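worker-3 :: picked Cyclic pyranopterin monophosphate synthase
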Amino acid sequence: MAEALTHFDAEGRAAMVDVAGKAETSRRAVARGRVVMAPATLERIREGQIGKGDVLGVARIAGIMAAKRTSDLIPLCHPLMLSKVAVDLTPVAPDAVEIEATVSLTGRTGVEMEALTAVTVAALTIYDMCKAIDRGMRIEDVRLSHKSGGKSGVYEAE
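worker-3 :: tokens ->
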């Protein structure tokens, strides 16, 4: 009988799951979120009028870098060789930037945490770059919207 996948060792202590016995499959995860802000802040982002530079460009790079470093940020996450990370940021009138991260690999464990981390760090980067003019920004609705691959199959958020 196969050993159960668990985050606990024989003594009940937290441990990284041993995925060595799992089959490698193509895995993909998509996460989404948004940053809500004052309409004037969104307009300044669109016009490139934020003093710290290209907000969406920097947030995109920050999200990609964060996905690659998820195992350094989240305890017990496996370090993964990601084959793709894409972070898309879309200004939505009158007052938000929507963020979508897609992460994929062929491996033994999923990439949900990497996609969620990419969205979260991209959102935090937007906040950081704009906080001098809008401290009331809100990061909202960070969630997994799609997951495929692995034993548990496909997940699609409603």
